[in-house]
Prior knowledge:
The complex is a heterodimer. Chain A contains 25 helices and 9 strands. By secondary structure, chain A is of the alpha/beta class. A 7-stranded antiparallel β-sheet of chain B has the order 15-12-14-13-17-18-16, with helices on both faces. A 5-stranded antiparallel β-sheet of chain B has the order 5-6-10-8-9. In chain B, strands 1-2-4-3 form a 4-stranded mixed β-sheet.
Amino acid sequence: MxxxxxxxxxxxxxxxxxxxxxxxxxxxxxxxxPTCPTYIESGKDELxxxxxxxxxxxxxxxxxxxPDEDVKRSIDLCLGCRACEPVCPSGVNFGHLLEQARDAIxxxxxxxxxxxxxxxxxxxxxxxxxxxxxxxxxxLGFYQRSGLQKLTRSVGILNLFPDTMxxxxxxxxxxxxxxxxxxxxxxLASIGKQQKKVAFFSGCLMDTIFQSTxxxxxxxxxxAGCEIVIPKMQSCCGALHGHSGEQDRARExxxxxxxxxxxxxxxxxxxxxxxxxxxxxxYAHLLKDDPEWHERAVxxxxxxxxxxxxxxxxxxxxxxxxxxxxxxTYQDSCHLKNGQKTFNEPRQLLQAIEGVQFVEMHDAGHCxxxxxxxxxxxxxxxxxxxxxxxxxxxxxNAKTVVTTNPGCLLQMKLGIEREGLSDKMDAVHIVELLIExxxxxxx
Amino acid sequence: xxxxxxxxQFDLIVGEENIEVRPAMLHAYSYDATxxxxxMPDCVVSPRSAKEVSKIVKICHEHKIPIVPRGSGTNLSxxxxxxxxxxxxxFKHMDQILEIDEENLTMTVQPGVITAEVIAAAEExxxxxxxxxxxxxxxxxxxxxxxxxxxxRGLKYGVTRDYVMGLEVVLPNGDIIQTGGKLAKDVxxxxxxxxxxxxxxxxxxxxxxxxxxxxxxxxxxxxLALFDDLETSAKxxxxxxANRIIxxxxxxxDQQTVQVVEDYAQIGLxxxxxxxxxxxxxxxxxxxxxxxxxxxxxCRECHAIDVQIAKTAEEAEALTSARRTALSALSRxxxxxxxxxxxxxxxxxxxxxxxxxxxxxxxxxxxCTFGHAGDGNLHPTCLTDARNKEEMALVEQAFEEIFHKAVxxxxxxxxxxxxxxxxxxxxxxxxxxxxxxxLQSIKAAIDPNNIMNPEKVFTQSERNRVVI
Lengths: 443, 468
């Protein structure tokens, strides 16, 4: 239970932090309801709909209701997938409202200790420091390679963790050696005629657990005619912080990245993680009240491009791309689609691959339930959403499920594992499929 | 307030999990899509069957507790706001399509089915359920029935009323009645089906409906026509109909709406045009072909600046984007969007739109008009800010004048959104004092305790001005 004092503090925070104009922009038409995964999965509970959440936020600011446990629950249960944004006639930026509300709640909330410890560990100790990410993931690699993994699995230590965590542990990719992780070059020349000079945003998770995805991405850029710089000083994008009410921390990271990418004269900054990309595009908003940084943030945000966007721009889909016959389907990354408005490009690339049959999944734009660390902290709802997603995936009879974001990739792998389909189906990041198709096509 | 004893009785009927009294939950059901109306219910109940609904209603009847039925809460006249508190009844558990009868061409549904699902289920069988209100992707069929919802296809195919053949209704005393059925002809007693359709939840709760389906039209074609001024476009509308062509859709945007749409969507509309018509025809290919050619000819005879007929589905999609984005574009200009639905005979459209322009100027307001030109159902849309109390007072005066004018031209104060709470003070303009007396007598006969959606359509107390 929340104390009266805490409620008063949250209430005051709401007044200070919420953008009232944006709250007013919601006309309550309800067009967002059918797109909201938590509204649908909660059995059409208005409390867990975008319109309901905005009404609660406004109700708290207006003093009509107290910011009680139910209000907090409603804000917590939101995936932040932003599927409500493209369908909103008034163009309400729900993502921003959600961040403000979480900021208002969590800046004062007396969290339970494990929750606080977990948040503190993830947000303050791990993600901001690439060294530590490498260290932590290195440990994970050691754990996987040393046989400890086998041991813990047989002993059942992992049974102490929630189911999702246990399953997740199974689908984590093989982690590269610590030495390999540290050795990324800071400059790569294009292969063939140079068309663009780009900087690569390597990301914290992407450059550790998903290093092979990053390698495939830079390789594709090289093939497409890009000279690449990879600034050493870059850090995590801050999305997980921003989405979880750690705005100040997110701003610090934004500044670090803006600075890191100002060094080189480049056409674009390339990302391969929909979640990061959408947050990087939003730096301009994140730093809007900071006169010293705002303009620099705008310049930074304007340069962000997803790997699929630049590949289409450089007509990579006209290159010979070839794979052995199989059905493939695509699961939209919510933030690539709703945040960066990029949904045609991945499909265009996949449809350009000869030999494969692309089957569009029903409701491909519906969140898979990954949503950052949502699948760990809101496991039940996440799995319910994933079950729906897997139903749609199975309908396509696909052998390969293509994703454009690491969170989605792991979640889809988890879904495949849960359904017992790992011998028939696999999930991959789009770049891995494209690099294979390209190298095949040139044979 | 609802006492613990009554809540306990509800508990026994629907189970604890289907009753909500927590403040956040009540707050989430305190509004609909109407700006300026908000009021907390005392309790939210989600029954699973007509029987459960009946039991709940009986208790409310006995204790004179107000009941507000609610679908997805997309109402635009304040009809689903619980102005006197009481019980909000949700139909989220009653959301099944019970039967599609391909011999009698009917579909039997529970009230919680989403309208778009009704349409899709019909189309899967090569059948057609025409009513397509703007909110069809989220609105529930029960709400459509209670509000007698319209849509874009009203001109050719009619509205919800024309597709409701039979109902199961829980009356305010808890009795369950069946009206109509799978019958084209049925004159046994008063037509209670039609009485319930559009009664805005003031006479009973619809718990099941039998809908009429028709064969699905084979093809569809779309055209867009641009006009220099309003009068010529209106002439084209009249002329199309006078030539014995009834298009499936005949939509209209005025100059201001075109300007706002183009500012927002940049789809290449010339912003100096006086009016835009979006025209669709459906049916057998040869008929559609012939009608569209004739429609284009008529538009040109009426001095259209340009007429484009879509050759492909993609082109059709592009042409309809202007009309589809109208509401989005308008909603983004100012925080508060007040969407009205004054309706006039189609021959009076130009006159009505001109009058709306004059009224907007008089009160220095921004009112853009678009809507269903074919059936005279206009959507004068005021772009304002609910926080500006002075302007809101002017908005109310302006709409009052618009309603007066619409009725004067032989029209009505509301074509498809319902009277609800928002237009309650103006109902007498349309139906007269004697008309209100009849409505009140019917209401008193069926709902003597006035528990069903009170303070909607008309008030039992003295008429008071609505505060927007």
